[in-house]
Structure formats: structure tokens, C-alpha cells
Amino acid sequence: MPTVIADDGVRLDYTEHGDPSGRPVVLLAGFKAAATSWRYQLAPFSAAGYRVIAVDVRGHGASERPASGVDMARRGRDVHDVLTALDLTDVVLIGGSMGGNTIWSYVEQFGSVALSAIVIVDQTPKMLNTADWTHGFYGYDESNVDTFFATSVPDTGRGTPMWRRGMRLVRLLRVLGSAGERELAPGELALLHDHATRDWRAVIARTETPVLFVAGEQSELWPSTHARASAALAPRGRAAVIRNDGHGANLEQPAAFNRGVLDYLAEVAPARR
């Protein structure tokens, strides 16, 4: 498996698919998820002519797990290190869940000059619910800001029950397995808290790159209204909600996800540069 060495010496693994001369599409998975969570996107995006690069961020998948902790700023720097090491320009960044806000961390630190489009997959830019933002994590507000994620990602009781998901559940388990079942390590909890307390709305508002915000209609974590609200912040924002879809939007309804995202990219960032 090819690797990139981050600026602090940590090894980041990735896989590459499709046309080497096509526009790069870099896929960033969410909290605890490996790059293999994009398995249903690799062939369709490659067939559309893109150069598809699925990255295992540090501490995830096959990449190195350093003893020191990681925060959202470090995740953004890792994205920069990957783009720099592979000499990528005109890049489409697609991030699922925490991978979506990892993109905003990258943009905050390095700007969006290297990017041609951004796709955020079922991730609200502000997880804390406040008077001016009601599209955050269910049940998370100023009364429990320091304790809500102290030991785990709470079960919200929202979305479609697992036993009713049918093939949606089969696809999730095929890719993720039991990755979310073990107890979270202290470093993981620290990252989760940092992620939960960040607010990326100002970064979105000053990003001129075209952005598509995708929501799962039945997301377990937050209302799908976050997509439209986020798109309204962006100078070139657009929103899409996938019906009968949960938080794992690209896994549960891959055909609808792939069709919608590829149609969007054909308009704003075609495969051939």
C-alpha cells in the first residue's frame, strides 16, 4: 500500500484507483472509519474518469497510530501533507462525517486554492445546538457541552432502527463491521470532544470553492436540515438530501449517493482537467 509521511513523521496510507491523468478525488472517512468505507464509490468514480485516492487518516485503518493524541487541526494538516506529497491540484475533497469537518480544518489553515470542489457527507459544521444553530447533534447543547461525549458517542434513538434497514444494514456491516463497538481510548475521546466543540461556519462563509452538502434523510445524529442551512452559508453552496438514508449516507444508499455526487461534479469539476 502506498504511503505519505506527514510533517511530523507519521505514516499515512492510501489507495489509488482510476485514471492517473483524471482530476483527483480525495476521500476522507469519518471518526474511527477506515478508507475502505468508500468501497462503493471507488469503481463508479473511477469509471467516470476521476483519479480516486482514499486516505486512511492517522489512527484509522492501515495508517500509523501515534502515541500522542490528534485533534482537528492535525487532521487538517494531514490532508495538506497528502496533497503536497502527491503534488495534487484542482482536487475534489469528499469527507464523510468527521472527514467533512476535517476538510474545513484544512481550508481554515491552508485555504482552498488547491481545490476545485468540496463534498460534505452528513456532517453538520456545528455539533452544539444553540439559539442560532438548531442543526447540531441530537441532545447536545450548552447544558452538557463538557460531558455529552465524555465516554462515548451517545445513542440518540433517532433514525431508522437497525433491524428495519435491510440491505442498508448489510452494506454498513460489510464495510464497518464492529468498528464502533469497542470502548473509546482517551485520545479518541479527546478528538471527539475537540470535533464536537468546533464551529466551522465562518470558514464555510469565506470559502469560494463550490460545496455540496449531502444529508441522510434519516440520519441518527442530526436533522437533515443541516445540509440546507450549511449551503446557505457558503458563497457557492448547494444541498442534497438522500431519502431513506442514514448517517452512513454513501454506504446505505450508494447508488443514489454516487449518482447525485457525480452529476454535481460533472457540472462544477469534470473528471478531466
Describe this structure in words.
This protein starts with a strand and ends in a 5-residue tail after the last helix. Strand 7 (211-216), helix 7 and strand 8 form a beta-alpha-beta unit. The chain is globular, with a radius of gyration of 17 Å. An eight-stranded mixed beta sheet has the order 1-2-4-3-5-6-7-8, sandwiched between helices. It is 33% helix and 17% strand. With 273 residues, the protein is an alpha/beta fold. The model has no long low-confidence stretch (mean pLDDT 91). The protein has one domain: 3-Layer(aba) Sandwich (Rossmann fold), CATH 3.40.50.1820. It has helices at residues 39-47, 72-85, 98-110, 167-176, 186-196, 201-205, 225-233, 249-252, 254-268; strands at 3-5, 11-18, 24-28, 51-56, 91-96, 115-121, 211-216, 237-242.
CATH class: Alpha Beta
The biggest sheet, with number of strands, parallel, antiparallel or mixed sense and barrel status, is: 8 strands, mixed
Count of alpha/pi helices: 9
Whole-number total of structural domains:
1
CATH architecture: 3-Layer(aba) Sandwich
Radius of gyration: 17 Å
The number of E-state strands comes to: 8
Key terms:
Rossmann fold, 8 strands, eight-stranded mixed β-sheet, 9 helices, single chain, alpha/beta, 273 residues
